[in-house]
Amino acid sequence: GECVVYGHLCEAAKQTCEDPDKATPGNWVCSCAAPSTGASKVGGVAVCALDECVAVCPTCAGTTCASAGQACRDPVKSPLNTNDWLCECTGDGVGSAEQSAAQCSVDECASNGG
Fold first, then answer.
1. pLDDT score for 29
2. Which of 13, 15, 26, 60 has the smallest set of CB atoms within 10 Å of its CB?
3. Which three-class secondary structure state does DSSP give residue 54?
């Protein structure tokens, strides 16, 4: 099938290749590999997203931020850019940390109105 020829394009983008009808040329498909999401693309690389704050995967945040009462943010939601999620302090807390709960400090001037 065509995945023998074009599969490397899908694999380089961390996607899977499928050739639904090996007798029909040009119908190979790249699909997002779980936990990435996005529409498959016929004859090319799909556009996939991976939000490491929401998805379940080895590089994902899981409950790290939430269990510390913090917000999780993934600045680049791409399966090609992993391990970049942050825990960010909420409320009056200031601070953030990559791939772990943040050490939050309170700006007492800001929290007391100036």
1. 98
2. 26
3. coil
